[in-house]
Amino acid sequence: MRAGSNLEKMLESGQFAVTAELGPPKGTNQRVVERKAEVLRQCCDAVNVTDNQTAIVRMSSLSVSILLKRMGLEPVMQITCRDRNRLAIQADVLGAVGFGIQNMLCLSGDHQKFGNHPTAKNVFDLDSIQLIQTLAGMRDRKKFAGGDDISGEAPLFVGAAANPFADPFEFRVIRLGKKVRAGANFIQTQPVFDVDRFKRWMDLVRKRELEQQTHILAGVTPIKSAGMARYMRDNVAGVGIPDSIVSRIEQAKDVKEEGIQIALEIIEQLKQIPGVHGIHIMAVGWEDIVPVIAEKAGLLPRPVV
Amino acid sequence: MSFEPKIVAFCCHYCAFAAADLAGVMRLQYPPNVKIIKLPCTGRIDVIHLMRTFEDGADGIYVAGCLEGNCHYMEGNLRAKRRVRYTQQLLDQIGLGGARLEMYNMSSAEGPKFAQVAREFTERIRSLGPSPLKRGREEAEAAGERLEAVGTA
Amino acid sequence: MIVAEQKPLDELRQMLAPYDRLLILGCGTCVTVCFAGGEKEVAVLASALRMAEAIDGRGKAIAELTIHRQCEPEFVAELREKVGDAEAVLSLGCGVGVQAVAEALPGVRVLPGLNTKFMGQTVEPGQWKELCAACGNCVLDLTGGICPIARCSKSLLNGPCGGSEDGRCEIAPDVQCAWQLIYDRLTQLGLVHLMEEIIPAKDWSTARDGGPRRVVREDLAKLSQ
């Protein structure tokens, strides 16, 4: 046990884990966070808090993670490499640990060009793999990246993202291996729509026995509208929505119902893939639907570990 | 007193200038405002030549070359086309107006076209009026001083 | 080489508005090769400015001069005589050139005519791309000769990130993913195993992050009198 967080215990116990995502507000109102958190409370083992997602400034992932902790939920604090250098990141981690936050997800981060401050200087002092190494080092060697000792323990459950749908395809699994070697204890993937391609990726994962060294949670996103489906297909890098799904949505009488149905079908298939230890539900701006999906997928109530 | 535009036509030896010759032989009329400068190829024209010609007082300039695909030097007229376009944009930016510059293509057999282009362009410039440089320079007479020209190293 | 672009004409005219007597100074090296500030560009800009000012009823006197390299103290020292009574010098050199000229002509207003962009190479006539970020600690041996610091939008050392699709970077369809290029090159060289190694966190102190840099070669220092 690296940290003993609920998420870690769930995964280590061999049970199918469920995580979800919470997007902080573009403002100072904590009630928004509290409302979303209550929706997610009963239906997942841990809640990811995004970090200036798509380079749009929002309430910080550290502060919102603290808020969730105080509400009795378990956060996964997301850290991108775009906005903070190694000093700031390690400082945030020290503070987070002090509040009992243990799950951390290491990401490169979307380029600031996409967000609302495209004229900012980007940081990228570390990349996501070096970030994983840094956090693992803080935990296992009790040292900062610069070499000084850290006073106190840093029990961290370190995660990383993986994109089975980006290029070069053959290299994605090698890169996953790098993340695992760097110290990634769990992996959350980008949303899966093309299950066949995901299965091929999982074949390569198992060939390298990576599913034995890390816990993989497959991403699931319910589609809300035809516009969203088309946007994700055409504009969001590395998602790969098959045209068949876009057509289903476009031809559906009740688009939202169809979106939920597609998500449920995908979840059923994901459950069957060996090496997949859980799902990560990313319901962008539609957090209310997460408990519905979890319920219909037969994943409720969440086991207590 | 009506305005007589000063037009300079840069013509390539193989096509446009030959067409001008032919227009002469055919006794076709075109305005005397057009002064023809012969080049081996319109590809010889560079932006600075066009700029300096305007600086020296031309009201309008056109570059006439072979038909596209038939340049005697293969691509000279294509290079000229791009440089003319670049110069037109620059002329718009400085307030002289890119409409005072144009590129035309013709074959050596097109005597009538040469004459027609000369007539049409002269009329275009006539209606645009004299180059704004003239008036501007008159206004600047009092303010202007000359720096000694410095040679390049 | 250093690649730069001329500032827009409006911006230049605004910068030059207070001055009636100018010298436009070109540079015969990098900016000549990227057609931003060589002798030809000086001539065209001088002509454009003269005409623009004249059309507005102002009589700016503009002289033109191009030296081999503005970043060479020896060549720049000669400018002291050539400046004459110019009130301002518009340098069409890169940022280095502008500063060198400004230092050589104290008391003269030296203005930048170009925006210096990057260190790069000609792709084809009329196109230049960024290749080197001067990080001070070259890792091109690990990446088959393709720089991840300059050419990856996120300067990743263990790329590609999840935004790489079809050889393209997420930031724009016409930006190549440097790590796709590296992967292809290393595969071609039979060295793709290099990409399985984790490259540790970079020491950025050798880059501009460590402060303005200097290189000293003591064996080449001036002999004392």
Can you offer a commentary on this structure?
- The complex is a heterotrimer of chains A (305), B (153) and C (225).
- With 305 residues, chain A is α/β, with parallel strands linked by helices.
- Chain A has a single domain (6-224, 263-296), classed as Alpha-Beta Barrel (TIM Barrel).
- Chain A is 41% helix and 15% strand.
- Chain A contains eleven helices and eight strands.
- In chain A, α8 (226-235) runs antiparallel to α9.
- The model of chain A has no long low-confidence stretch (mean pLDDT 95).
- Chain B has 153 residues and is of the alpha/beta class.
- Chain B has one domain: Rossmann fold.
- In chain B, 42% of the residues lie in helices and 15% in strands.
- Chain B contains five helices and four strands; from the N terminus they run βαβαβαβαα.
- Chain B has helices at residues 16-25, 47-55, 76-94, 111-128, 132-140, and strands at 7-12, 34-39, 60-65, 101-105.
- Chain B is globular, with a radius of gyration of 16 Å.
- Chain B starts with 6 loop residues before the first strand and ends in a 13-residue tail after the last helix.
- Chain C has two domains: 2-118, 3-Layer(aba) Sandwich (Rossmann fold), CATH 3.40.50; 133-209, no CATH class.
- In chain C, the strands form two sheets. Chain C has a four-stranded parallel beta sheet. A three-stranded antiparallel beta sheet of chain C has the order 1-6-7.
- Chain C is globular.
- Chains in contact: A-C, B-C.
- At the A-C interface, α5 and α6 of A face α8 of C.
What order do the helices and strands come in, and which of them pair?
The complex is a heterotrimer of chains A (305), B (153) and C (225).
Chain A: H1 6-12, E1 17-22, H2 30-40, E2 46-49, H3 61-70, E3 75-80, H4 86-98, E4 103-107, H5 128-140, E5 157-162, H6 169-182, E6 186-191, H7 195-207, E7 215-220, H8 226-235, H9 243-251, H10 255-272, E8 276-281, H11 289-296
Parallel strand pairs in A: 1-2, 1-8, 2-3, 3-4, 4-5, 5-6, 6-7, 7-8
Chain B: E1 7-12, H1 16-25, E2 34-39, H2 47-55, E3 60-65, H3 76-94, E4 101-105, H4 111-128, H5 132-140
Chain C: E1 2-6, H1 9-16, E2 21-27, H2 30-33, H3 39-55, E3 61-67, H4 73-77, H5 79-82, E4 88-91, H6 95-104, E5 109-112, E6 114-124, E7 127-132, H7 148-151, H8 178-188
Parallel strand pairs in C: 2-3, 2-4, 4-5
Antiparallel strand pairs in C: 1-6, 6-7
